[in-house]
What does this fold into?
Amino acid sequence: MLLRSMLALAIVGMFTTPALAFHCPADASAIDGAMSKMQLDDAARATVQSLRDEGMALHGAGQHKDAVGKLAEAMRILLSAN
It folds into this structure.
């Protein structure tokens, strides 16, 4: 339940203000933590990992809006799997 609340808070935080657009590393860390504690099927785990990696690549390329979108998509999958 705590994990679900933390992920929900992270997702809400992403959409509340543009000033939070540069929190991609924190989001990726939250995704990593959630994946290590959750039991996901192989397909869901691969999808979440791919979205996480895409998000961080976009972050590294300076495309923060797109990066936030990919990381949010990964978090939504984790929330629905929980």
